[in-house]
Amino acid sequence: MKYKALDELLSANGANRNPLDKTELKSWIALIVTAVAATSIFGLVWLIILLAVPIILLVIGTRYRDPRYCPIEPRISLFLIVSGSVALALITLNIIISVVTIFLTSLRSLLSLILPFILTIIILFSGIFSFIWLIIGSVWTFLINKQVTHEYDTTNNFYTYNYCHPVLY
Hints:
mainly alpha
């Protein structure tokens, strides 16, 4: 029986029992606290994973921003920087809208309706921009796929025109 404790509380046999038995109540509270803690840990791990990708995009984009790292297509670093920045902004805005919704729900005011709506519109347009930017950056990256080389000319000590750093590309 799935809900044995609940059935006992509601049945005639359990009517003479005290429904607030301290040991049973402690076990239910422990179960709820464990579930909340597991959910929080899962959410924190998921947030760290979500934040890692945009941060890596920003680090690689800023590290290889100089055009000599990819003379064949110098806009790849710009693509990574903008993608990482917009993704970080989207994650931050989603956290802000969640917190605002939690705290402003009890106010029942116009502000509690308008602020989440405005944030949702900003998130929507940022998501659309991010999708379009992904297409543009993919075109920049894969258009040069057949021409790019990852070998640095060590004899003459310079980057060839079709060079692109392997980490950046």
